[in-house]
Design brief:
- α2 crosses α12 and α4 runs antiparallel to α10.
- 44% of the residues are buried.
- The protein is built from 13 helices and four strands.
- With 356 residues, the protein is mainly α.
- The longest helix is centred in the C-terminal third of the chain and has 43 residues.
- A four-stranded antiparallel beta sheet has the order 1-3-4-2, covered by helices on one side.
- It has one domain.
- It is globular and about 70 Å long.
């Protein structure tokens, strides 16, 4: 992800009940509508997210009112060439790993699509949805636009999107478990959270991951998510999802980590825990890219560092991870549409071969 916006709208899907069901003939099919109670909980979640977003804006307003703008400008331009190139490298790695989300989903759906098509659909859908928000609408539309000519129906694109979202959350859970348990003492000291609570959260997330792996290992499983019946990947593919998702989250967090001011003295394991929590809060706020909430969380967690320097790193992070890929995605989508229309025009203009 990645990416402080839920890549595939799985946070919204989580508002719906999830029940074990027998596998469907196809990977995803429509079932009964969402119960009224679930709709009520969805509205509560939206209200809480809005409240979180407003609270983050208030916090940022107080922070910015005390900022020395000259120092912020100096911090923004102080990043070395080595830092910028390292950040760009991790951006490329992160988006390359995001293409594996779609590749694993296509494997689960037993669909054969050329990797160049998968890479184009994955990269452009994530780059667009990260910036515009509403991932099920924006990212799903881009995916369908590219996958439909390859024969994928809307229901298959929907199932692909949800399975890719599961990859993201499995990776987030694995990274959070590792960072909390491997550096629990340092995380507790840097965040002010009691050591016992840090360990409890780490063990709890680990237990949830193990329970999920056991759940999908016993037999073929299907769940109902927002009125759709989805067959879940088995143990081997779920394990691959966890590892790919964890690697992608690490790459995305490394973009911001290498942009932090030199000599900050924060271990990467500690920063990973902070980053994952900031991403989750950003997703809960429903703001595009977690804008505002992500920054507020990072500023609070890294309060020991100069605020101007952290803000400068956050601005560079937004440019490197969000703005530049978004511009590239728009260019690729434009080139894709022009190429597709030229091919269609050529097929119309070329005369048919006479029958022998």
């Amino acid at each position: 992800m990645t990416h402080t916006d839920d890549p595939d709208g799985m946070a919204d899907a989580a508002a719906a009940p999830v029940h074990a069901s027998p596998p469907a003939p196809s990977s995803v099919r429509a079932v009964n509508r969402m119960p009224q109670g679930s709709k009520r909980f969805a509205w509560i979640g939206t209200a809480l997210g809005l409240g979180l977003f407003v609270a983050a804006l208030v916090f940022l307003w107080h922070v910015l009112s005390d900022i020395e703008w000259a120092e912020l400008r100096s911090a923004f331009v102080a990043a070395s060439a080595e830092q910028l190139w390292a950040a760009i490298g991790f951006v490329v790695l992160s988006y390359a790993l995001l293409t594996c989300y779609d590749a694993l989903a296509l494997k689960q759906l037993q669909l054969r699509v050329p990797y160049r098509t998968t890479a184009l659909a994955s990269f452009t859908s994530y780059a667009v949805s990260f910036n515009l928000g509403f991932p099920l609408l924006t990212g799903g539309t881009v995916r369908y636009w590219i996958y439909a000519p390859k024969g994928l129906r809307a229901s298959r694109v929907a199932s692909l999107t949800v399975i890719a979202g599961i990859t993201f959350w499995l990776g987030m859970g694995l990274v959070l478990t590792w960072s909390l348990l491997s550096a629990s003492v340092a995380v507790a000291a840097s965040t002010g959270i009691r050591l016992g609570l840090v360990n409890l959260i780490g063990v709890g997330v680990a237990a949830a991951l193990v329970a999920y792996m056991v759940f999908v290992s016993l037999k073929r499983r299907a769940v109902t998510i927002q009125g759709w019946l989805l067959e879940l990947p088995g143990f081997r593919l779920s394990l691959g999802q966890s590892l790919i998702g964890a690697a992608e989250v690490c790459a995305a967090s490394a973009v911001l980590y290498v942009l932090l001011p030199a000599g900050h003295g924060i271990d990467f394991e500690i920063f990973l825990a902070v980053y994952v929590v900031a991403v989750m809060l950003g997703i809960a706020s429903h703001a595009p890219g977690g804008l505002g909430v992500f920054e507020a969380t990072i500023l609070i967690a890294l309060s020991s560092l100069p605020r101007e320097q952290v803000l400068g790193a956050l601005l560079l992070f937004r440019i490197c991870y969000y703005f530049l890929p978004f511009i590239l995605a728009l260019a690729l989508l434009g080139a894709y549409e022009i190429t597709r229309r030229l091919k269609a025009l050529r097929s119309v203009l070329e005369p048919e071969e006479p029958l022998a």
